[in-house]
Amino acid sequence: MLVHGLLFFPATRFAASQITDLFDFVWPTAAALWNLRWQVSGFLKEAPDSTAKQLNDRFVFGSGIYGTNLKKSCINTSWESQKHNLATVTLTNALSIYEHWADELLASLGKGSNQGKLFQRDAGSSGQPGLVETIQRLCAPESSILKPAYYPVFTSSPKYSWKQIHNLIACYRYFKELRNAQMHNGGIVDNRAEAAYLNFAVAAKKEDLGMRGELMHDPAVAGAKVHLHIRGVVGFCDILLRMMVTVDAELSRSHKAEAILEKAFKDADLRSTLSPKPIAKRMQVLGCCRRAKLPKPAVTQGIEKFLVDRRLVSR
């Protein structure tokens, strides 16, 4: 889903790995559940009087899983209901990853703890800052080192989606309010979820979201049951990744991000002495970037100066 090398902040790299792992877990789990359903169904057609213990001995023995009710899960529960439940679990975990990432990223730039809500909304009518405004404030001033060296690199990621960012935030609010209704309103759509849907509906086409295919989702009507599609939730995981990649790229030009750059080089324990020869020196700077787990910069002069000025290498 993502080229992790085109990320700057450690918090984003970690969260992107978590989202990718979650994505990679969902489809095999759904496929395994589907196969278990028809195997249990077939077994019961041949042996309809089988006990719960016999079913468990046949399908679960040796797994370390206990307390299963395969007949209830595979026969009495519909496939649509199970897909909805799997989508709910996936959505809850994906949103938790994003929210923790937002807190960690903003904390790394000096915003304090528990400020991640700034990356979960657009600007409010009362002048409350949202994601875009927070980025603008954090990027004043910009870094004269990072902007020419790395901003063009990180914005070249295929996941970078600044043009669609307001639509992606609207998508985020829709899924977030559905999750909230599922967890805190008995699975019934409330007025907040309906409002989030109406705001998202005007920008929900694939062209609006920068997607190849349509994002599967249902209208949210107050009083109706929340209904989630596993395909839609997996598509939303990609929306979250794109939001993280985009924010990561934009904040890579902040002057505050120079502290992150310095720490990356310090953790790499460079111990280098730069050559006086230009070509050799450039290769050494690129080597320092690799050891710091950073991609190749667009230009090296600023990075070279940064390394020397911060006494991370010697001449």
Structural features:
315 residues, 2 domains, 0% strand
Plain-language structure description:
- With 315 residues, the chain is mainly alpha-helical.
- The protein folds into 2 domains: 4-251, no CATH class; 268-309, no CATH class.
- Helices cover 60% and strands 0% of the residues.
- The protein contains 13 helices and no strands.
- It has helices spanning 10-46, 52-59, 70-76, 79-108, 131-138, 146-154, 165-184, 191-201, 206-209, 230-251, 258-267, 278-291, 301-309.
- Helix 1 (10-46) packs antiparallel against helix 4 (79-108), helix 1 (10-46) runs antiparallel to helix 10 and helix 4 packs across helix 7.
Mean pLDDT metric: 94
Please give the oligomerization state of what you see: single chain
- Rg, Å, rounded: 24 Å
Low-confidence stretches: none
User: Major sheet, described briefly?
Assistant: none
Output the number of helix runs: 13
What amount of the residues lies in strands? under 5%
Number of domains: 2
Order of helices and strands: HHHHHHHHHHHHH
State the distance separating the first and last CA atoms.
41 Å
How would you sum up the global shape?
globular
Helix and strand composition category: mainly alpha
What level of helicity do the residues show?
55-70%
The beta-strand count equals: 0
Secondary-structure topology with pairs:
Blueprint: H1 10-46, H2 52-59, H3 70-76, H4 79-108, H5 131-138, H6 146-154, H7 165-184, H8 191-201, H9 206-209, H10 230-251, H11 258-267, H12 278-291, H13 301-309
Helix pairs in contact: 1-3, 1-4, 1-10, 4-7, 4-10, 7-8, 7-10
